[in-house]
From TrEMBL:
The protein's role, per its UniProt record: Vacuolar Fe(2+) uptake transporter.
Lineage of source species: Eukaryota, Viridiplantae, Streptophyta, Embryophyta, Tracheophyta
Catalytic activity field: Fe(2+)(in) = Fe(2+)(out)
Entry similarity comment: Belongs to the CCC1 family.
The name this protein goes by in its record: Vacuolar iron transporter
Record localization: Vacuole membrane
Keywords carried by this UniProt record: Ion transport, Iron, Iron transport, Membrane, Transmembrane, Transmembrane helix, Transport, Vacuole
Organism, scientific name: Morella rubra (Chinese bayberry)
TM region(s), chain numbering: 46-65, 77-95, 140-162, 169-190, 202-221
Topological type in the membrane: Multi-pass membrane protein
């Protein structure tokens, strides 16, 4: 009898362990299903705007500073040009995003009105809910300006305390390149896309922008004798 009881206890213990393991596996499977069902397209909408704004600010300001540095060794001229580009770019991003999102907002509202008219329904809770889901133009404009400014501050801060001209240009290019790689990694990880491909695209694009701006400005300055 003792042997039978011991055997029953072992069997019950095995059943308990198996049930617990099955519960853990089911929980993990549910979590995996939730990850698989997560709508990365919705995340990509705000992610695209944030990464695009920061990358645009970084590349624009760094390219502008490289262009001015190609014909002027003065640190103040290079810094002021970059700062002016940051302010102008942030304002441009804010206005462009505001107009774009407001246009989308008007289109969505008009579509909701047409649907209610075709269904012979008036204002209801569902329509109000749909309106609340629409993008806010003011928030989108502020977010774009903020993202652009954060990206543009990187090359400005990197060159603020470098006195030597060639070292300043090298630091701006190096810091901009490193930051572009970081932006590419962030965008790829949050959007669940290939990291290497994302970083390569952003980095090569940034190099092209800085190189073209530097080369053309240097050529025009050398051929015309123009000095800022």
């Amino acid at each position: 009898m003792a042997a039978i009881r011991a055997h029953d206890q072992v069997s019950l213990g095995q059943v308990g362990i198996q049930v617990h393991a099955n519960g853990v596996e089911e929980q993990k499977q549910c979590q995996g299903d939730e990850d698989d069902n997560f709508d990365y397209y919705q995340r990509a909408q705000w992610l695209r705007a944030a990464v695009l704004g920061a990358t645009d600010g970084l590349v624009s300001v760094a390219s502008l500073m490289m262009g001015v540095g190609a014909v002027r060794k003065d640190m103040k001229a290079m810094f002021l040009a970059g700062f002016a580009g940051l302010v102008a770019g942030a304002c441009s991003m804010a206005i462009g995003e505001f107009v774009s999102v407001y246009t989308q907002y008007d289109i969505e509202i008009a579509q909701l009105k047409r649907e209610r008219k075709s269904n012979n329904t008036g204002e209801d809770k569902e329509a109000d809910t749909e309106k609340k889901k629409l993008p806010n133009p003011v928030q989108a404009a502020f977010a774009s300006a903020l993202a652009f400014s954060m990206g543009g501050l990187v090359p400005l801060l990197a060159a603020a305390f470098i006195r030597k001209h060639k070292a300043r240009l090298a630091v701006v290019a190096a810091v901009a390149s490193l930051t572009l790689v970081i932006f590419g990694m962030i965008g790829a990880n949050l959007g669940r896309s290939p990291v290497g491909r994302s970083c390569a695209r952003v980095l090569v694009g940034g190099w092209m922008a800085m190189g073209i701006t530097f080369g053309i400005t240097k050529f025009i300055g050398s051929s015309t004798g123009l000095r800022l």
